[in-house]
Amino acid sequence: MTAADPIPPTIEWREGAVRMIDQRLLPGELVFVEARTVDELCHAIRTLAVRGAPALGVAGAMGMALAAVTGEAPDDAAGRIVATRPTAVNLAWGVARGLQAADPVAEAIRLAADDVDRNRRLGAHGASLVPDGGRVLTHCNAGALACAGYGTALGVIRAAAEAGRRPSVWVDETRPVLQGSRLTAWELDRLGIPATLVADVMAGSLMGGGEVDCVVVGADRIAANGDVANKVGTYGLAVLAHHHRIPFYVAAPMSTIDSTCPTGADIPIERRSGDEVTSMDGHLIAPAGFAAENRAFDVTPAALITAIITEDGVLRPPFRL
Ligand code: MRU
């Protein structure tokens, strides 16, 4: 945390351990959790203590650093880390970077710093797409907490605010695990950017009422044809935005592009426990034992995307990635 940044680093290497903000406890408590072994890190990833594609990329590299310092076989550790969450390609990317590095600890530290630099560049590219006084709708959390720092979709909003464009934000609560209300709202509050929380189901009403100027979301994996996997619910927002002729922007670092995936149909979609849908904070909100489907991500076809904002510039359709 610096004077300029009210949000502490999401994930960092500290004295032989991976130190992370425990995102399971936000917004109630700002507490850090440490992983000293690959298994502890895998647990933190699976239980969403650390989450968000770029943060998972850094976590992957730091996992390989842990394997190096604890003397674990690198290939076995790599396999276990990559298997924790299948959709965000950044995780496998970070693991591969750590695996190839002569010094995995130095590489993980470098990737964390590099992530923040890239997000700042991405934000600078995207800021001018936000109209002056623009009302931006975002989904899930693609902020500093989803990265080593600064954020991608929230990085664009943050950069627009820093450039004096006075954006305000509609924050989707993002069922079922509420990354919007727990994390995005917490970040925007700390940043002092005006924001209003809405239930996911209100997006149509807001867009139909002319109260959204653009949508900016993050991504977990972008296929070669520009199809984008992101938090479930993103696809529905893109359809609504298209219907209402509202620009729909995806903000993601180049490491989220998977050129080996021809289309969105080739992106593996994580299935999580139905318990995340049938209960909230440990309380049942559905009949006990009721069936629940919990796809963590959906795929937005490239045809619904106005532009993809990266650290290297703004990509417009037709996408050939
Ligand atoms: O399940 P999560 O919380 O890891 O999902 C995160 C998202 O869907 C984000 O939008 C995406 O990773 C981009 S983060 C910059």
Polypeptide structure, described:
This protein has 321 residues and is α/β, with parallel strands linked by helices. The chain folds into two domains: 11-117, Four Helix Bundle (Hemerythrin (Met), subunit A) (Up-down Bundle), CATH 1.20.120.420; 127-315, Rossmann fold, CATH 3.40.50. It has helices spanning 38-46, 53-70, 74-82, 89-100, 104-127, 153-162, 179-191, 203-208, 234-243, 275-278; strands at 11-14, 17-21, 32-35, 135-138, 168-172, 195-198, 214-217, 221-223, 228-231, 248-251, 257-258, 279-280, 283-284, 297-300, 307-310, 313-315. The strands form four sheets. The protein has a seven-stranded mixed β-sheet with strand order 6-5-4-7-10-15-16, sandwiched between helices. The protein is globular. The relative contact order is 0.13. The mean pLDDT is 97. 5-S-methyl-1-O-phosphono-5-thio-D-ribulose binds at residues 51-54, 88, 140, 142, 146-147, 152, 179, 218-220, 230-231, 296.
Overall body shape: globular
- The helix count comes to 10
Annotation, overall tally of beta strands? 16
Mean pLDDT: 97
* CATH class (first level) name of the largest domain: Alpha Beta
Low-confidence stretches: none
CATH superfamily of the largest domain: Translation initiation factor eif-2b, domain 2
Ligands:
5-S-methyl-1-O-phosphono-5-thio-D-ribulose
Secondary-structure-based class equals alpha/beta
